[in-house]
Specification:
By secondary structure, this protein is of the alpha+beta class. The chain has two domains: 36 residues; 122 residues, Sandwich (Immunoglobulin-like), CATH 2.60.40. Helices cover 26% and strands 41% of the residues. It is built from two helices and six strands. The strands form two sheets. It has a three-stranded antiparallel sheet with strand order 1-2-5. The radius of gyration is 26 Å and the shape is elongated.
């Protein structure tokens, strides 16, 4: 092999090695960032439920029934959690699923929870019905004691501030 071919081949191999190094660093950086933001590391739990009726809320349709839920959210990721969308599957004491709640905290458009890595926060959500007789899930959830319910949580989407 001539010296000219050797220099050309050496330069080509050096360029390939540099590109491979840059790609490898970028790929590992992306993988590290994804691992730091694993939604399975977000802990969820309903810690309180309040059920009430407000007769004065809407006089034209005889008031409104409310179920207010307090969620405890623990950010077990390594990034600051901005907002989270949750599905809460609700089961009765016999194990039959009576319904699913879709909840969002932090807001996709606007405010951020800014829940730092390792921190825990309690947030309240409310859902209501004017005429709960048309919604069997609402009736069951409203009337069943919390000790007779079981919850499973699923993070369907999350956004991180950093």
């Amino acid at each position: 092999m001539s010296i000219k071919k050797f220099k050309t081949l050496s330069t080509l191999l050096l360029v390939v090695a540099i590109i491979a190094g840059i790609y490898g660093y970028g790929a590992s950086s992306i993988a590290e960032k994804a691992a730091a933001r694993d939604v399975n590391d977000i802990g969820l739990k309903i810690v309180e439920r309040k059920c009430y009726y407000n007769a004065d809320e809407s006089p034209y349709i005889n008031g409104r029934y409310h179920i207010e839920l307090t969620y405890e959210i623990k950010n077990g990721t390594k990034a600051t959690l901005g907002w989270v969308q949750i599905k809460t599957h609700v089961y009765d004491k016999s194990g039959v699923q009576i319904g699913t709640l879709n909840t969002e905290f932090g807001g996709y458009y606007g405010s951020s929870m800014s829940l730092k890595a390792g921190d825990t926060i309690k947030l309240v959500t409310d859902f209501a019905e004017h005429q709960p007789g048309n919604n069997q899930f609402f009736i069951d959830f409203y009337e069943t004691p919390v000790k007779d319910l079981r919850f499973e949580y699923e993070v369907t989407e999350a956004n991180f501030d950093n």
